[in-house]
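Attaching the record inline, Q. Sequence:
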Amino acid sequence: MIQILLGREGRVWREALATVLSQEEDLEVVAEVDQTDEVSVVAARKQPEAVVLDHGLPGSLTVPDLCEKLGAAVPRCAVLVLMDRGQGALSTALARLAPRVGVLTADAAPWQLVESLRQLVRGEPVLDAKVAVAALTARENPLTDREREVLRLAADGAPAKEIATELYLSPGTVRNYLSRVIAKTGARTRIEAIRIAEEAGWI
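Structure, as predicted:
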């Protein structure tokens, strides 16, 4: 029996996915979470053979960082990330973690999801062809780790003063980071910079 942890926002979609997987005789969903911060904690407790993650799962950790953390917390655990085709930079980062981490488009058929999980658990690589093309044509992420942190908080609606408190920076330093992000993305505003970075998979 392959025990699975699901990481997906939205109870309706998460439970629907759990139902699809649990219909298979060799698959069992043992836990469900809706934040990246909860995944490695629950995985360390449940010790699943596989984790299915939505690429847009909210939380303080990015999905690639979470996959790295899972590798340390539960080394034998395979991770399947469901993502949109346009997330080229993100798929490039995840492809480097193969074969322990696999990538599948979110619009894949249920049978593809099931077979991909079985492949990963057997140690076989899983990389959707459409995602692979996006990875090969993706622009390199121009943002530093700190710029990504600041932009992720800004994307959640936090003002500069709140971001500064969260990251132990001065408000002026936060504004400088945001100005550099706007310049690097070629955006005209902070909102546009967030949209560009999200669509490119940089945050």
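The chain has a mean pLDDT of 87. The first strand starts at residue 2 and ends at 7.

More tomorrow.
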